[in-house]
Specification:
heterodimer; A: 267 residues; 2 domains; 13 helices; globular; B: 352 residues; alpha+beta; Rossmann fold; OB fold (Dihydrolipoamide Acetyltransferase, E2P); five-stranded antiparallel β-sheet; 9 helices
């Protein structure tokens, strides 16, 4: 066995060395999270259990998951057609559209929050139109959803686009020659074949929404999402107050994503 | 009947297809033969409606379908990669077109039975299509295309994804299928073998144009341009000038040698090319009565699959094709002198 490893190392030294160099990043993530979990769950579980009983904490976590779910639904409804249109057509200015899709990824999220806030606050023209319809963004669920949508939809759209691009376009063409309308060839052929990419894009988008803080805190400090609550507790009560909530959020997300990954891999 | 009238298509400023006009008869096996990049696949895609041409018309049985959506054309189309829907079983692939037509379940089952029997794919029907071999995929894809009772079956390089043995078998199956179905087949390929074995008529396509249409004999023995002659692997293309003409018999001077050919289309003094297939060159030691009789020297003997190519220099360069036995019985060797003969009727004269 040892000889085998030695042999592999001689044939393939770069993989070994690069793996050791890169491992620092894995340690960074695993170490940080493990440290946090270990402190909370093993050293002082009483604190953690106390937190579980606090309704405001549970409410904020529930709100976070729910708001991000709504944002993901919107990303899927509007992002799927966008991804398909971009993937299947070549047109003048396509690269500009693709660059715009990526904009939310590259701008600082507080900037995104400020931009959204100035567009959608009640006193702005657009915000007042929505306010007349009964939708207020400032300090509301809708504000949170919009901010989450803004920062998370690129993950969904890009994943969906890659999914559509990876399907041989001849499938849809053949379907047309067999008598399928374009609409049918889309939902009977393209959509099922890109199901995995759409699902994993939606999961990523949902995760991104849950993790958002900067954009949300500007437009909707209240109602408090988990990230805002953790920041607030950190400012008022330090690590001791904020850590348990963070751990709870990590655990919940972990379980949910594991579950979603499992069902998405089954297909 | 399919009629293409002056079809042109541009990609940016470049013509991909230019003034393609063609008539394919009802029930005909028509092969479009040409090198890669000639626009053959695009031509099929225009016929089935995946793209629409910049100019020109497509008529089927007199009806203009140039701008009709593909789903209304009822044409069977087979892509080179067969494009079986990977998320469907073989059976679901085949029924797809029928289900879209709201055909009753009984009728669908009946048709599936008939097709699976015809293609001998009964045992594949519930298989995941991604696990099928190339030949099996081809059968399922053809069955899928025929399930909609198309007016025409269009085949885009149907054999190029198959290994040599499967290919030989499936080519003869294809011929039989065409005879049984009785519908028009249009088959696009770069393989001369497929064209010879399958075609009733061949259209040669080059640089986005149809440059010659004819029976396999006309195409392979009487190509009308130098490019076609080269494409059908005729190396014997000689350039000369007509020096004499008596009725349809013309004398062409090639590098100082006089070759007699038959043609009505030329005048004395015109520059022409003469083409002859290597199989039509006869080699021998003695004298014969053939009008075209030249002395030469063998410059090379090259193995070419199951036969040999003999290169001879007799003032102009000649290639002949012979079997191993003929080479041995004539005792041919590189550097030896040899006489060659060919008939005036075997020569094709084209303008230069």
């Amino acid at each position: 066995m040892q000889k085998r490893i030695k042999l592999e190392f001689r044939r393939n030294p770069l993989s070994f060395i690069f793996f050791f160099i890169g491992f620092i990043l894995i340690i960074l993530v695993v170490g940080t999270l493990f440290n946090l979990l270990f402190k909370q769950l093993v050293i002082s579980p009483a604190n953690f259990i106390a937190i579980l009983k606090e309704p405001s904490v549970l409410k904020s976590i529930g709100l976070t998951l729910y708001a991000s779910f709504l944002a993901t639904i919107l990303a899927v409804i509007f992002g799927t057609p966008l991804a398909y249109a971009v993937a299947r057509n070549s047109f003048y200015g396509k690269n500009i559209i693709e660059a715009i899709i990526d904009v939310p990824v590259i701008i600082p999220h507080t900037v995104a929050g400020i931009a959204l806030f100035s567009l959608l606050s009640i006193r702005s023209p657009v915000g007042s139109v929505f306010a007349n319809l009964g939708i207020v963004f400032q300090d509301s669920l809708w504000g949170i959803v919009v901010a989450m949508l803004f920062v998370s939809y690129p993950l969904f759209v890009n994943s969906a686009k890659d999914g559509f691009l990876s399907i041989n376009p001849n499938y849809e063409r053949v379907a047309r020659t067999l008598g399928a309308s374009q609409w049918k060839s889309f939902y009977q052929i393209a959509l099922p074949l890109s199901y995995n990419s759409l699902l994993s894009g939606a999961i990523m988008s949902w995760a991104r929404g849950i993790s958002e803080f900067g954009a949300i805190v500007v437009i909707a400090y209240y109602p408090m999402i988990a990230a805002t609550l953790i920041f607030y507790r950190f400012n008022t009560g330090g690590l001791k107050e904020s850590q348990p909530i963070a751990v709870l959020l990590i655990l919940l997300c972990f379980v949910i994503f594991l579950f979603l990954r499992l069902i998405s891999n089954k297909k | 009947m399919i009629r293409l009238e002056n079809l042109s298509n541009k990609w940016g400023e470049e013509f991909e297809l230019k003034n393609v006009s063609l008539e394919v008869k009802q029930g005909e096996y028509f092969v479009i033969l040409g090198p890669t990049g000639a626009g053959k696949t695009l031509l099929l895609e225009l016929i089935v409606g995946i793209y629409i041409p910049n100019e020109g018309k497509i008529l089927i049985d007199g009806k203009d379908i140039t701008y009709e959506v593909p789903e209304k054309r009822n044409l069977g189309f087979l892509y080179q990669d067969y494009s079986l829907f990977p998320h469907f079983s073989a059976k679901k692939n085949i029924e797809y077109g029928m289900k879209l037509r709201n055909i009753s379940k009984n009728e669908i089952d009946e048709k599936i039975k008939e097709l699976s029997k015809m293609f001998k794919i009964q045992n594949l029907m519930h298989r995941d299509v991604t696990t099928l071999s190339g030949g099996e995929q081809q059968k399922v894809a053809i069955a899928r295309a025929l399930a909609i009772n198309p007016k025409v079956l269009l085949l885009d390089e149907p054999f190029s994804a198959l290994d040599e043995n499967t290919k030989t078998k499936l080519i003869s199956d294809m011929k039989e299928l065409h005879r049984k179905e009785g519908i028009t087949f249009i088959h696009v390929t770069h393989s001369q073998e497929e064209a010879i074995l399958l075609a009733d008529r061949i259209g040669i396509m080059m640089y986005g144009k149809i440059v010659q249409v004819g029976t396999p004999d006309e195409i392979f023995y009487k190509p009308v341009t130098k490019e076609i002659a080269q494409f059908v692997k005729i190396e014997n293309i000689w350039e000369g000038k007509i020096t004499n003409k008596k009725e349809e018999e013309i004398v062409v001077e090639v590098n100082g040698k006089e070759i007699v050919a038959l043609s009505n289309h030329f005048k004395v003094g015109q520059d022409v090319r003469i083409i002859i297939r290597p199989e039509d060159i006869i080699l021998g030691k003695g004298d014969t009565s053939a009008r075209n009789n030249f002395k030469g020297k063998i410059t090379a003997i090259i193995k070419h699959g199951f036969y040999y190519i003999i290169r001879i220099d007799c003032g102009f360069k000649v290639e002949a094709a012979l079997t191993k036995q003929s080479i041995e019985s004539l005792n041919l060797k590189e550097g030896k002198d040899i006489n060659i003969f060919f008939k005036a009727t075997a020569l094709q004269v084209i303008k230069r």
